[in-house]
Amino acid sequence: MRPLILAMLAGLAAAPAAAAVLPVTVAAQAPAAGTLVLPLANAGDLARVGTALDAATQAAVSRALTAAAFDYKAKSTLSLRGIGTYDRLLIVGLGAAPTRVDLQNIGGIAAREAGKDKAVALVASHLPATAATDVALGYRLGSYSFDAYKKPEKPVVRAPLTVVGAGNTDEQASVAEAVAFTRDLVAEPANIIYPESFVERTRAAFAGVGGVKIEVLDVPAMEKLGMGAILSVGKGSTRPPRMLIVEYKGAGAPAKPIVLPGKGITFDSGGISIKPGTGMWRMKNDMAGAASVVGAVLALSKARAPVNVVAIAALAENMPDGNASRPGDVVRAMNGKTIEIISTDAEGRLVLADAMVYAKKYDPAAIVDLATLTGAVGGALGNEYAGLFSRQDWLADQLIAAGKATGEELWRLPLHPNHLEDVKSDYADIRNSTEGNQPGASHGAVFIGYFGDPKTPWAHLDIASMAMSSEAVPTVPKGATGYGVQLLDRFVRDFKPGN
Q1: Domain named Cytosol aminopeptidase: which ranges (predicted)?
Q2: Tens-place pLDDT, residues 11-31
Q3: Of 332, 279, 334, 286, nearest in space to 470 by CA
Q4: Active-site residue 224, yes or no?
Q5: Is 347 annotated as a binding residue?
Q6: 156-186 in b/e burial notation, b at 16+ Cβ within 10 A?
Q7: How far apart are CA 394 and CA 381, in angstroms?
Q8: Beta strand ranges found along 321-379 (DSSP E)
Q9: CB of 121 closer than 8 Å to CB of 30
Q10: Digits of tens for pLDDT over the chain (499 positions)?
Q11: In contact, 217 and 240? CB cutoff 8 Å
């Protein structure tokens, strides 16, 4: 390859500057100009916004709300101009009983609806004590965009936010930064993010963060450990696989870690069992599970949380060349169990098989794996929930609670003894897929669980329908969502060992 082309590719693959979170400050008084956001749960709230609006402005806003028949439902908006000293007044409905997620949505709406080049203030003096934290997180999440390869017509200036009231606006700043890091990884094209560059992006993101240890297993190291499952997936690619391990232990953390394996297929062609061409471009996001588990550890470590957590990113590119694995091949995982490959497009569970075995070395308190594993989970749950599988009710309950608290919700799906019978092989210990009309999401989950220690609490999250969004919502853009970072951050912080 010519030196000029090599230099151009190196420039594209270089890690970007660390994601910066927008400044969000607290003030007792709103600025007199720019955009003012007023979250209202009912007509009476208008009188509770304090000195942000004088009497004449309040009266004008009240008339406008009545004329518009504003319903105050969550996420309803009304934009007003030419009232008072402000360039714009943005009324946002809170709903009758706003949750913390609702407050985050208010921040996201402010980020997406408010002007990009002037001051933005949001009145929170009449809201719960956590409002400043929640609104700030939502504003930062809603301000995210991925435009690394676009030539903008003019520079976009992101306005800082002033929260009128009291509270801590930086408590969740590390979460916002980690979500942006994860979204960036998932949004990048596969010629930029592949196993080796994923590792380098991770190293750059964690540079200078205390309490963190990063280990990378290359092909010789994985061969020595007998990781034949992940190695079989990477055989068809010129980009070799990697197993990336990021450990973080904060002050006062428990002795046993929570281990988070993540599927990291940086591009999934399907291998020899090649996918249809339509929509294949989306398979650059097949590493979203790995991106999210690393992002969760980034959030926890930057916040210096008192937790013990390990992310294992199982990274490979699934391509169809003459060296690629074939349907019918038998490979051996790190624990010596043999796997018959029915479909090379069921590769994510193969890389996670070795990650699950490797996780045993940490004697974990629990294992929770994340994977964009099956289309079947989307058919069952749509894009409202990720699929949750676990043998432990108490572990499932804690994950569901974390999902509700963060808005990254889960729905529990079945693991039945017959599912394991379905994936037994005539030629090996287990097969990676079944044929025909089968419960594909449950089969994928039971395959992964087969490689864990039965005594270790374990859950599998199938996030295939959640990693990318076809339309924007207040805190999530169209495209890469970063799903799982907030969920895992909350889960790890709140984790209690069960029986």
Answers
A1: 343-350
A2: 455 555 445 678 899 998 888
A3: 279
A4: no
A5: yes
A6: eebbebbbbbebebbebbbbbbbbbbbbbbb
A7: 22
A8: 330-332, 338-340, 366-371
A9: yes
A10: 444 444 444 445 555 544 567 889 999 888 888 899 999 999 999 988 867 788 899 999 999 999 999 999 999 999 999 888 888 999 999 998 999 999 999 999 999 887 666 789 999 999 998 999 999 999 999 999 998 898 776 666 678 899 999 999 999 999 999 999 999 999 999 999 999 999 999 999 999 999 999 999 999 999 999 999 999 999 999 999 999 999 999 999 999 999 999 999 999 999 999 999 999 999 999 999 999 999 999 999 999 999 999 999 999 999 999 999 999 999 999 999 999 999 999 999 999 999 999 999 999 999 999 999 999 999 999 999 999 999 999 999 999 999 999 999 999 999 999 999 999 999 999 999 998 778 999 999 999 999 999 999 999 999 999 999 999 999 998 999 999 999 999 999 999 999 7
A11: no
CATH of domain 24-164: 3.40.220.10
Q: Which of 284, 349, 431, 490 is flagged as catalytic?
A: 349
* Selected catalytic residue, list 75, 256, 275, 332: 275
Q: Is 268 annotated as a binding residue?
A: yes
Is 140 a catalytic site residue? no
Phi, psi of 142 (to 5 degrees): -70, -20
- Which tokens sit at 167? 């509270």
Whether residue 286 is annotated as binding a ligand: the answer is: yes
Spatial neighbors of 254 by CB under 8 A, at least 6 apart, are 307, 308, 365
Q: Which CATH number fits domain 173-494: 3.40.630.10, 3.30.1330.60, 2.40.50.140, 3.40.50.720?
A: 3.40.630.10
CA-based torsion, 25, 30, 33, 37: positive or negative: positive
Burial tier of 199 (Cβ tally within 10 Å: 0-12, 13-18, 19+): buried
CB contact at 8 A, 184 and 16: yes
Are the beta carbons of 89 and 101 closer than 8 angstroms? no
Opening angle at CA 111, ends 72 and 59, nearest 5: 40
471 is in an annotated binding site: no
Residues of the chain with CATH 3.40.220.10: 24-164
- Residues whose CB is less than 8 angstroms from the CB of residue 181 and which lie 6 or more positions away in sequence, other chains included: 18, 19, 201, 205, 291, 295, 298
User: 177 and 302 in contact (C-beta within 8 Å)?
Assistant: yes
Q: Is 426 a known ligand-binding residue? A: no
At residue 238, the pLDDT reads: 97
Q: Which tokens hold the place of 454?
A: 């039965």
**Region(s) of the chain under CATH 3.40.630.10:** 173-494
